[in-house]
Every structure is written in C-alpha cells, then in structure tokens.
Write the structure tokens for this entry.
Amino acid sequence: AHNDFLEIWAETGTLGLICFLGILFSLAPFILHPLAERRGPASHLCLGLCAGLIALLVQAFFNPLLYIPSSGMGFWILLGLIVLAGEKK
C-alpha cells in the first residue's frame, strides 16, 4: 500500500485499523488537559509533541514509514511522551 493507514487496514483488517485509530483518539485527554489548564511549560511541551505526532502521521499518509524501525519507534516514543506530559498532577 502507498500509505500506512491502508497498510494497517490491509494487514490487520478493519478491527486492526479501528484499534490503531482508537489508540490515537485515546490521547485526546492527555492532549487537551494541559492545553485547557495552560500549565505553562507542560502545555507548551504537549503542544510541541502533538505537532511532531501530526507531522509524522501526515508523512505516514503519503509514505509507509511506520514499518521502518526508526520511524516506528519515534512514533511510539512520541505517544509515550504525550501521555507523560499530559498526565494530571
């Protein structure tokens, strides 16, 4: 396939694509909470990490790069850092 979303759908089926998108949508509370509270550096960090994640996902829409180990690892590291930066304290 020519993009990662189609590749995930082709290899894992509709349920796999729903699970992948569910992981992405489950980040919403971790993204929106620091931005709503404007907690200073945490909200800026979360905003920057989200920009990186969006850039990676846009690139994955045009090129299959999540199956490249370095890019795939960067994706999961970004997800983990967003959760860490956005957790309630």
Observations:
- The longest helix spans residues 4-25.
